[in-house]
Sequence to fold (78 residues):
Amino acid sequence: MNEKLAFYFCSILNKNIKILNYAYNKKRSQTAIKNEIVFLPTKNNQIDFDFMEKYIYKIQKRTQKLIYINKKSNIITI
Fold:
Protein backbone atom coordinates (compact mmCIF):
# COMPACT_ATOMS: atom_id res chain seq x y z
CA MET A 1 0.00 0.00 0.00
CA ASN A 2 1.30 3.43 -0.84
CA GLU A 3 0.63 6.83 0.75
CA LYS A 4 -2.18 7.81 -1.62
CA LEU A 5 -4.07 4.56 -1.06
CA ALA A 6 -3.64 4.98 2.70
CA PHE A 7 -5.13 8.49 2.47
CA TYR A 8 -8.04 7.14 0.44
CA PHE A 9 -8.80 4.38 2.95
CA CYS A 10 -8.48 6.78 5.90
CA SER A 11 -10.93 9.19 4.30
CA ILE A 12 -13.45 6.39 3.77
CA LEU A 13 -13.08 5.17 7.35
CA ASN A 14 -13.41 8.73 8.65
CA LYS A 15 -16.56 9.21 6.60
CA ASN A 16 -18.00 6.07 8.23
CA ILE A 17 -17.42 7.67 11.64
CA LYS A 18 -19.98 10.34 10.71
CA ILE A 19 -22.38 7.99 8.95
CA LEU A 20 -22.40 5.43 11.79
CA ASN A 21 -22.65 8.13 14.49
CA TYR A 22 -19.61 7.16 16.50
CA ALA A 23 -19.06 9.39 19.50
CA TYR A 24 -17.16 9.44 22.76
CA ASN A 25 -19.72 7.18 24.40
CA LYS A 26 -20.08 5.02 21.27
CA LYS A 27 -16.45 4.28 20.54
CA ARG A 28 -15.16 2.51 17.50
CA SER A 29 -13.57 -0.82 18.33
CA GLN A 30 -11.51 -3.19 16.19
CA THR A 31 -14.55 -5.46 15.99
CA ALA A 32 -16.73 -2.58 14.83
CA ILE A 33 -14.23 -1.64 12.13
CA LYS A 34 -14.04 -5.25 10.93
CA ASN A 35 -17.84 -5.32 10.60
CA GLU A 36 -18.12 -2.04 8.66
CA ILE A 37 -19.02 -2.18 5.01
CA VAL A 38 -16.74 -0.08 2.84
CA PHE A 39 -17.54 0.61 -0.79
CA LEU A 40 -14.54 0.87 -3.09
CA PRO A 41 -14.37 1.90 -6.73
CA THR A 42 -14.19 -1.00 -9.13
CA LYS A 43 -13.32 -1.53 -12.76
CA ASN A 44 -14.01 -4.85 -14.51
CA ASN A 45 -15.01 -6.37 -11.13
CA GLN A 46 -11.61 -5.53 -9.64
CA ILE A 47 -10.78 -2.87 -7.06
CA ASP A 48 -9.65 0.20 -9.00
CA PHE A 49 -6.51 1.20 -7.12
CA ASP A 50 -5.44 3.45 -9.99
CA PHE A 51 -8.61 5.54 -9.61
CA MET A 52 -8.03 5.90 -5.85
CA GLU A 53 -4.44 7.06 -6.36
CA LYS A 54 -5.44 9.57 -9.05
CA TYR A 55 -8.31 10.85 -6.92
CA ILE A 56 -6.04 11.59 -3.95
CA TYR A 57 -3.40 13.07 -6.27
CA LYS A 58 -5.98 15.53 -7.67
CA ILE A 59 -7.12 16.52 -4.17
CA GLN A 60 -3.51 17.09 -3.10
CA LYS A 61 -2.79 19.22 -6.17
CA ARG A 62 -5.94 21.28 -5.64
CA THR A 63 -5.02 21.81 -1.99
CA GLN A 64 -1.47 22.85 -2.92
CA LYS A 65 -2.88 25.33 -5.43
CA LEU A 66 -5.20 26.83 -2.81
CA ILE A 67 -2.33 27.11 -0.34
CA TYR A 68 -0.21 28.86 -2.98
CA ILE A 69 -3.03 31.28 -3.86
CA ASN A 70 -3.69 32.05 -0.19
CA LYS A 71 0.02 32.53 0.47
CA LYS A 72 0.36 34.81 -2.54
CA SER A 73 -2.63 36.87 -1.38
CA ASN A 74 -1.39 36.94 2.22
CA ILE A 75 -4.62 35.30 3.31
CA ILE A 76 -4.22 33.11 6.35
CA THR A 77 -6.78 30.33 6.76
CA ILE A 78 -6.87 27.57 9.28
Remarks:
- The mean pLDDT is 86.
